[in-house]
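Saturday, quiet lab. Running sequence design on the C-alpha cells for the scaffold JK sent over.
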C-alpha cells in the first residue's frame, strides 16, 4: 500500500514530513496490533492477472502465540491459502478459517521441519478472518491468500477411450501422482471412480459435479413424440445425481448453443430452472450449462440469466486447433478464438465473464485431436491460450477455466495442464510458462505438404515410394478443427510406400536444434492405402522401424494406439527418447528391421512396440501399401 499526502497546497518538504509521520504511525499501529493478537485489517487487494487477485501476503514472520488476519474476498468464489512454518519437537502452527458454518482448520504444521501447506475454499464475497495459533515457540514464516478461479477437471471416470498412454486409466490415484489434484478445485464426474475419496475431497473444500447431456433430456424426449414441458424438465433435472445426492454439488450439462438447436425448449427450461432453485432442497447446488455462441439466441440468454441469478455459471466451449504461424495463432486468440467472442457475450450481458468458465480444448491424441500441425509445438499453443485469458482485458475477472477433456488427452498433456493451472490460476503469473518456440525447429516438412522436400527417400525398388494426396485424409487422422476454421489440405498429403520382400523403403532427415540430455517425443500416423481406397479396413497395428542415432529410448513412455475413423483403421505411434547430442538423424522404415541396412548402431533405437508378436523382419505382408504422415518431433515434458 502506498501512502500519499493529500493535495493541500503544502510545500514539497511539508508533504514529505506528513508522509514520513503517517508511515511511522501506520508502522506503530501495525506493531501494536501484532502484539495484541487483534485482527490485522484487510489490505488493498493486488490484481496479479485476470484470474488471480492477492488478498493477503504476510510481510514479517508471526512469532506471537495468536494472531488474526482479515481479508476481503472480492466476489463469491474460490480462495487459495498457503502457509509456511518451521516447527520442532512439540511445536505446532495451526491456520483456522472462521466461516458462518463454523471454524475450518486449513493447515496444521507439526512435522518438525519447514513445510508449506495449501488449501482452497469457496467463500462468499466480503470480509473473512483467519486465526493463526503458534504453540511452543513456533513461528509462521509465510501466509498468502489469493482469490483464484474455479479450476475444473473433466472428466473423472471417462475410461472408454483412454488407450493413448501406458498410464491409463486416468483414475484419481494417477491424477494425484501427476499434480492434477493439487491444482484444481472442482471435479467433473463422468462415472464412478473407486480411487476417489469423495468425502475427503469435499471436506478439504473441493466440489464434485456430475456430467449430464441434452441428448437424454431433450433429444430423446422429442424423438419419443412426447412434449417437452417445464414439468418434464423439472422432473428430469431434479432426479440427476449431481442435484439429488447430498455428496455432490451440482451438474454440468452438455450442450446449449446459439444455432437454434434448443430454441423451442428454452422457455420450458427457463421455467424449470426457476422452480428448481426456488426449492430449498437444491440450495447451494449449481446447474452449469456447456454453451456454444449462445449470445446469438435471446431465449438461450434468458435461460442462462436465470441460472446466473441462482449462482450457476455458463461454460463456454472454445476448442482451438494449431495455426500455421505464431502470428496467426496470436490473431486467433485475440480475435474470434477468445477475446472477440467474449465481447459478443458482453454486449448481451455486461460483465458476463464474471459468471463464465472458459472451456478450452486439450484434445491431443486420437480419436479427436487439436494437435493438428506437426510443425507446431502443441504445448506452446496451450500456453498461449491460457496466457491470453490471463492478460486480455476482455477476460478480466473471468470466473473459471477448464480443459476439455481427459479421454482425448495423452498423459503428457495432462501433466502440462496441471503446470499451466498452477502458473496462471494459482500463482497469478502473466508471463508464458514455457520457453520453447511455437514453430518446431527440429525437422522440415513433417506433413509432406511440400512433397519430399527435406527428406532423403531410399526406395526398395523403382516406384515403391512417393508423396501422394487424398482429399479428406487429414480429417480421418483425427485432426479436429474445432472452432478454429479449416486449413485447406492440412494432413491430406502423405508418404506412400509399398513393402518389398528384399529390402525396406526408408526415409530420413537430420534432426536439428536438440538439447543434449533432454527428452523428446516422435509421433507418426500410419494407415493402409488400399484399405483407404476400398473402404474396407482391418483393425490391426501397422509395424514400422524407427532409428535415431545419438539417442537412448524411453520405452516406458512409448506406446502405439490403433483407432478407427470413417471406415479406416489407423495406428498412432508415440515414441520417446533422450538425446545425447544437439543433432541426430531420424530414419523411418516400413520394415521392422533389416540386418544389412537398418540395424541400430550403439546408441541407435530399434523401435518395435509389438515385438512380442514376432512379425519377422518385414513387420507385415509384402506388398502392403503404407501411408506415413504427421511426423512430429518435439520436446517431451519430464515428470
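Result came back. Writing it out in full:
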Amino acid at each position: 500500500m502506498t501512502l500519499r499526502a493529500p493535495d493541500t497546497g503544502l510545500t514539497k518538504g511539508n508533504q514529505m514530513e506528513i508522509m514520513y509521520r503517517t508511515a511511522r504511525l501506520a508502522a506503530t499501529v501495525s506493531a501494536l496490533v501484532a502484539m495484541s493478537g487483534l485482527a490485522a485489517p484487510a489490505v488493498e487487494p493486488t490484481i496479479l492477472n485476470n484470474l488471480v487477485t492477492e488478498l493477503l501476503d504476510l510481510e514479517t514472520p508471526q512469532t506471537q502465540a495468536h494472531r488474526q488476519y482479515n481479508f476481503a474476498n472480492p466476489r463469491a468464489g474460490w480462495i487459495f491459502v498457503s502457509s509456511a512454518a518451521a516447527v520442532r519437537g512439540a511445536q505446532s502452527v495451526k491456520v483456522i478459517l472462521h466461516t458462518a458454518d463454523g471454524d475450518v482448520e486449513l493447515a496444521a504444521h507439526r512435522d518438525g521441519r519447514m513445510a508449506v501447506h495449501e488449501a482452497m475454499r469457496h467463500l462468499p464475497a466480503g470480509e473473512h478472518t483467519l486465526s493463526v495459533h503458534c504453540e511452543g515457540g513456533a513461528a509462521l514464516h509465510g501466509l498468502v491468500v489469493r482469490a483464484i478461479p474455479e479450476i475444473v477437471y473433466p472428466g473423472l471416470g471417462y475410461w472408454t477411450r483412454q488407450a493413448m498412454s501406458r498410464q491409463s486409466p486416468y483414475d484419481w490415484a494417477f491424477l494425484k501422482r501427476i499434480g492434477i489434484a493439487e491444482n484444481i478445485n472442482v471435479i467433473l464426474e463422468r462415472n464412478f471412480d473407486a480411487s476417489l475419496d469423495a468425502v475427503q475431497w469435499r471436506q478439504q473444500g473441493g466440489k464434485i459435479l456430475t456430467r449430464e447431456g441434452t441428448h437424454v433430456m431433450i433429444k430423446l424426449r422429442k424423438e419419443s413424440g412426447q412434449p417437452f414441458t417445464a414439468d418434464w424438465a423439472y422432473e428430469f433435472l431434479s432426479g440427476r445425481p449431481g442435484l439429488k445426492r447430498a455428496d455432490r454439488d451440482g451438474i454440468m450439462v452438455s450442450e446449449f448453443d446459439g444455432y437454434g438447436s434448443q430454441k423451442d425448449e428454452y422457455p420450458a427450461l427457463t421455467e424449470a430452472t426457476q422452480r428448481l432453485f426456488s426449492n430449498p432442497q437444491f440450495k447451494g447446488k449449481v446447474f452449469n450449462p456447456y454453451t456454444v455462441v449462445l449470445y446469438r439466441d435471446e431465449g438461450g440468454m434468458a435461460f442462462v440469466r436465470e441460472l446466473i441469478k441462482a449462482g450457476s455459471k455458463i461454460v463456454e466451449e472454445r476448442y482451438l486447433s494449431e495455426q500455421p504461424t505464431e502470428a496467426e495463432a496470436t490473431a486467433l486468440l485475440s480475435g474470434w478464438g477468445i477475446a472477440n467472442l467474449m465481447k459478443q457475450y458482453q454486449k448481451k450481458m455486461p460483465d458476463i465473464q464474471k459468471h463464465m468458465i472458459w472451456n478450452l480444448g486439450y484434445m491431443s491424441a486420437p480419436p479427436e485431436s487439436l494437435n493438428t500441425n506437426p510443425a507446431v509445438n502443441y504445448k506452446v499453443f496451450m500456453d498461449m491460450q491460457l496466457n491470453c485469458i490471463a492478460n486480455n482485458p476482455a477476460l478480466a475477472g473471468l470466473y473459471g477455466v477448464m480443459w476439455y477433456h481427459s479421454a482425448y488427452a495423452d498423459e503428457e498433456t495432462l501433466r502440462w495442464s496441471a503446470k499451466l493451472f498452477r502458473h496462471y490460476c494459482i500463482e497469478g503469473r502473466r508471463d508464458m510458462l514455457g520457453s520453447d518456440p511455437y514453430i518446431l525447429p527440429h525437422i522440415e516438412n513433417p506433413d509432406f505438404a511440400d512433397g519430399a522436400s527435406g527428406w532423403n527417400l531410399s526406395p526398395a525398388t523403382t516406384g515403391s515410394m512417393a508423396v501422394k494426396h487424398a482429399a479428406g485424409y487429414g480429417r480421418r487422422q483425427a485432426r479436429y478443427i474445432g472452432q478454429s476454421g479449416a486449413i485447406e489440405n492440412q494432413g491430406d498429403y502423405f508418404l506412400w510406400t509399398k513393402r518389398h520382400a528384399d529390402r525396406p523403403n526408408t526415409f530420413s532427415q537430420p534432426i536439428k536444434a536438440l538439447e543434449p540430455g533432454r527428452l523428446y517425443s516422435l509421433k507418426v500416423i500410419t494407415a493402409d492405402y488400399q484399405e483407404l481406397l476400398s473402404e474396407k479396413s482391418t483393425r490391426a497395428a501397422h509395424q514400422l522401424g524407427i532409428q535415431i542415432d545419438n539417442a537412448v529410448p524411453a520405452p516406458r513412455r512409448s506406446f502405439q494406439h490403433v483407432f478407427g475413423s470413417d471406415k479406416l483403421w489407423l495406428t498412432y505411434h508415440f515414441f520417446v527418447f533422450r538425446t545425447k547430442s544437439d543433432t541426430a538423424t531420424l530414419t523411418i522404415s516400413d520394415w521392422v528391421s533389416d540386418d544389412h541396412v537398418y540395424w541400430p548402431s550403439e546408441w541407435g533405437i530399434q523401435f518395435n512396440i509389438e515385438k512380442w508378436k514376432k512379425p519377422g523382419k518385414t513387420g507385415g505382408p509384402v506388398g502392403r501399401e503404407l501411408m506415413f504422415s504427421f511426423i512430429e518431433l518435439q520436446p517431451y515434458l519430464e515428470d
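Notes for JK: The chain has 14 helices and 31 strands. The longest helix spans residues 12-36. Ask whether to fix the surface positions before the next round.
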